[in-house]
Specification:
The chain has about 325 residues and is an all-alpha fold. The chain is built from ten helices and no strands. Helix 5 packs parallel to helix 10.
Amino acid sequence: MFRTILKLLTALAVGASAAAAFAHQTAAPQPVPYLNAQAAQPAAAPAAPQVASPPAAAQPAPPTATATPAASTPDAGADNAKSLKSTVPVPHDLSPWSMFLSADIIVKAVMIGLAFASLITWTIFIAKMIELSVIQRRLRAALDKISDVRSLAEAQFALGAKDGVLTSLLAAAMREARLSAGISSDGGIKERAASSFAEIVRAEARRVRLGMGLLATIGATSPFVGLFGTVWGIMNSFIGISKSQTTNLAVVAPGIAEALLATAFGLAAAIPAVIIYNHFTRVTKAYLELVGRSSGAAARLLSRDLDRTHGPSHSRAAE
């Protein structure tokens, strides 16, 4: 039984293999359109000149049709290469200087204005840094000199002819004491002297804050000025897109990059201005605290002088 089944399976396998081989041999190959077109060209080429051709013995062999495509193929490739080269856009130089030179006149004006504003910012920074450092050091030294004096005259002698806010405060106190000679009301003299001190302090505050308003203006308006240049440049880029009838990024990218450069100029002018303004606000506040200490020192010296002047008369009046 086992042998019978094995023989039957073997016969079935042999029959299946023979049928597959027969089907493979009888199957027709699929036609290739490109090869059929090339094979059909030589057969169709000699059909035209057969009407007036000489006898077969003297007729020369017709040229093969495959020679013409072979000779024309390199020329077509060269023409295609030239057309591709002509359509490829030439890359632009996208350095900041070249973008500035190729930008619109309005965008150029915005960039120049922002560069000038940045120059003003750094000039104010250098000038105010030197000025505040010098006046703070001088005022601290002057306060140290008069810390142990007993009268306004001694304080003026200790300071000498140096110009400064403390010298102005002492001079105002001496002038008020001289103008109020013969007046026994010390409260009125101190009040008038305090009014003079307040005017001097306010004038000094205005002087040290000179340029701070310009820094605040540059820091607040520079980003918007740069944004104006960007909007103007992008508007011109879209106008160029509509004229050129193309949305190729290589064509429109240089104009957009030039427009965005204006925003970069605005941020480069605004960020340092804001930082410098905040720094000088803190430094100015510290200096004005020293000026307030100087005003208090001058008021105390004036009070001592008044007490010395009116002390004996007050004691005699009390007796």
